[in-house]
Amino acid sequence: MRAVDIDAYFERVGFAAAASRDLATLEALHRLHPMAIPFENLSTLLREPIPLDTPALLAKLVARRRGGYCFEHNQLFADVLRTLGFEVTTLAARVVWGRIGQSLGPRTHMVLRVRVGADDYLSDVGFGGLTLTGPLRFELNIEQSTPHETFRFVHRDGELELEALVRGEWRPLYRFDLQEQLPIDFEVLNHFVATHPSSHFLTTLVAARRTPDGRYALKNRELAVYRGASKEERTIGSAAEIGRVLAETFGIELPRGPALDALLGSIAAQ
Question: Does residue 7 carry a catalytic annotation?
Fold first, then answer.
């Protein structure tokens, strides 16, 4: 890992306080990151490479003001925290959100274990629509509030499972264990997610961004706006409007060129 340009990252996420290796700094950055840097998969749809090295992540997510998916978000966040002096361990999770009644899939999600003093916290700024906006203590069977949803850890089939309280119901997000995963492990997982024919990131446009009081979620032409317990939905009608929503609602600095025009046109035609 190379040291992160902290000033550029702080400007990107809107962090203006003094940074320390403490819980207050971790909580503040964890809240700001998913509101400033969107979750999006334009690169996989455009068949672009997804490098996970520090310079590439800074160039894309910070300098070019794009977003990314979980490996990009959480690897950048890990680099930021390590630059600030935090002890960070990268872990791999198996997503179970939306897979009720289905067989388990591979481990295709990165999460972080962050040490603060004598305590360990789960940190995850890259889970799309239900991205955490605060770290969670590694403590079983207790409800933990964030600036948005409430979460808890439970034991499930020998692993830790993270659950979110959604409209009064506990919903599982992903399962994981505490075995450290090395950069080469995530290179393999990233390659699978970015190139394997079964990966939905190759066929479906996905974007998400937190707001102070809710979140935006886009799946192809379907835009959902969540505020508290309310949900508003609408279908986007044209390629031009999809582009405007990505730029204005999600804050993505769109790449220009015929490849993006063709992609948005194909999505609008679905």
Answer: no
Q: The tokens of 261 are what?
A: 């025009």
Query: How crowded is residue 201: how many other Cβ atoms within 10 Å of its Cβ?
Result: 18
Which pLDDT does position 174 carry in this prediction? 96
Catalytic residue among 30, 79, 120, 124: 124
What residue ranges do the domains of the chain occupy? Answer: 6-268
Over range 75-80, report the average pLDDT. 98
- Which residue in 30, 70, 120, 148 is the catalytic one? 70
Kindly tell me the burial class for residue 115, based on how many C-beta atoms sit within 10 Å of its own C-beta (0-12, 13-18, 19 or more). Answer: middle
CA dist., res. 69 & res. 58, Å (int): 14
22 is catalytic: no
- Concerning whether 30 is annotated as a catalytic residue, the answer is no
Catalytic residue among 30, 33, 73, 109: 109
What integer pLDDT is reported at residue 95 of this predicted model? Answer: 95
pLDDT digits (tens, 9 = 90+) for 19-50: 999 999 999 999 999 999 999 999 999 999 99
Give the CATH number of domain 6-268; options: 3.40.50.1010, 3.20.10.10, 1.20.1730.10, 3.30.2140.20. Answer: 3.30.2140.20
